[in-house]
Design a protein that fits this description.
By secondary structure, the protein is α/β, with parallel strands linked by helices. The chain contains ten helices and ten strands. Helix 3 (96-102) runs parallel beside helix 6 (139-151).
Amino acid sequence: MRALLEVEGLDSAYGSSQVLFGMSLSVEEGEVVTLLGRNGMGKTTTVRSIMGLLRPRQGTVRYLGQAIHGLAPYKIARAGLGLVPEGRQIFPNLTVYENLVATAANRRAAKNPWTLERVFVVFPALAERRDNAGLQLSGGEQQMLAIARALMTNPGLLILDEATEGLAPLVRAEIWRVLAALKGAGQSILVIDKNVEALTRFADRHVVIEKGRAVWSGRSEALRAAPDIQHRYLGV
């Protein structure tokens, strides 16, 4: 496998408040990597820095070997990064269909691109709701729509910030099923979530962040075998 995303030495801040201190992580092609940590440790700031929504003060972000940390967010998205943001941020006044086609593209010329038909097979609830406005959807349906919208850009790397936050258990299980299926199809994924047990069932590697620094990384079996790490950095 080759490196898809390489984040090295990121320092990022909001005004005078520095949040990231030399943050580093990587995702290889076909790999699922998680970013774990308590609230306020810098997970979302890392994602915002990767996507160009916050320009880092120092450090590099490379995608397929090309530096992207100085690019505008839309150029980073066009390069092949698809974001499912915290809070979903779907277009509430557009229908499900309109949300999906608004940013649809296949710039990487994928051989089996994501289309409406393919998305509706994965998310049948969206097919039933295709003419409903975003604001008429449940929270779980909105999250499905946010994931489907990102997939419709045919990303090389799918990034999910708080993949199942606030969702009912049955909906969470559906999201985990979809992400596992995406991994099986070769989709590279970087995911933030608090459900360590679910994540260790399908993710390849995990990066734990504490106060803006990566303090531990390893494979699922290593994380499951390290209750002290979970207690120290992930426990409430």
